[in-house]
Amino acid sequence: MTKTTRDIDSVTGVETTGHEWDGIKELNKPLPKWWLLTFYATIVWAVGYWIVYPAWPTINGYTHGILNYSQREIVSQEVVEARASQGQYRKKLEGTPLDAVRLDDDLYRFAMAAGAAAFQNNCAACHGRGAQGLTGYPNLNDDDWLWGGRLEDIHKTISVGIRSDHKESRTSQMPRFGIDKLLPDVDINDVVDFVLSLSGKPTSAAAVARGSKTYTDQCVSCHRADGKGNIELGAPNLADPIWLYGDSRHAVRESISTGRGAMMPAWSGRLDPATVKALAIYVHSLGGGK
What pTM did the predictor assign? Predict the structure, then answer.
């Protein structure tokens, strides 16, 4: 009969399992009873949770549980209750002229809070959470506005959109001078130099001189002789350092060649009038509103 020798760890005094890796021995020490009881309790709790609350997906939906609990219904009810509690302010905001909202401190605070929430939910994806914009998406913090930065202008732009399907949409379309072969490449290159010169960028004097004539013939009616643009037509200011698509030679040439033509959806109809008004007030407050 073979006698089994128990291996006791000299440091802890606990028997080992006999397993050893690179001189490290595994102790044969059971988990504390309190830990095991807690673990078993979580299993019991999970089973109870499966029975009481919705838990398991099925082919036609999910198990509803004994309580038939629905977080979706609770959230929907909370939204209804929140709108009801805001009803007085929303109705007042809808009926108050834009320029008069700021005169009512409580109403203005409500409009700002509602506008900030609506901006994050509907506008931040394109304009950024801080309204800082991205290439092709305007920065709403500066004072450069294609269609005007007054409160009324911003409200209309949000309401009808830009090149949207709204019948009163803000609409401007620069010709696609390159794609539609309205100008040869050599003339487009010269106009690029002239446009860059308007904002003080390094250019070729000879190209600027040639591009000046083409600019006068093709671009002045919208961008004006000084390049500052016509707000009524949504024509960008070419004489400042703010560029929607970038101020590199390639970016400017791309704009002239393709006409760009980005769009913004019309938010009237998608959002209620009070929310559209709150959005306009919030955007105007960001620092760039005039």
Answer: 0.72
